[in-house]
Amino acid sequence: MKTAETLKRIEELTHQYLDELNPLSIEQLKLQSNENEWSLGQLYLHLIKTALYMQIGNIEKCRSQSADAVDPVGEKTEAGAAVFALGGFPPERIRVPASPQYTPEQPASKQQIIDGMHAVLQKMKEIEPLLEGISPRCTSLHPRLGALNAKEWFALIEMHYRHHLLQLERLKAFLNSTETV
């Protein structure tokens, strides 16, 4: 997928996530089925923080490298090659043990989520025209997928948003089941 297409798709996904957010109260956004499951608000903050700090942060790392002075940081892992060959993550849950570094906090407000989603989209609009000028030799390591270049990190944001649509549906179904009780 070309970067302009990726940007168009992330805009669509952002609007989809914001439309899903619109009717929800902050109480609904904080509701968890149990202590091991995230709330909808935590899902949104996970998407925002992962995009801003991990994915966009790694695009900036790639951008700051000089293609001439680059020592390869490694290769894509088998999982990384599979994700990019597939064009997304497989439709299965990825479970990571709860931890302060990984488990998102509950949102402080609905506006925090709205502002965060817009911030990610704005950063992507700023970055997209710069991607062509970043050498594909400039890479940064993803803990599971291996060495990714700036365009791959950019595409990963869209893939990550798309992957979490399954969780969004699951959490909405839980929310709907609590309202009928």
From TrEMBL:
InterPro entries: DinB-like, DinB/YfiT-like
Domain DinB-like residue range list: 11-168
Highest rank taxon of the organism: Bacteria
SUPFAM superfamilies: DinB/YfiT-like putative metalloenzymes
The protein's name in its UniProt record: DinB family protein
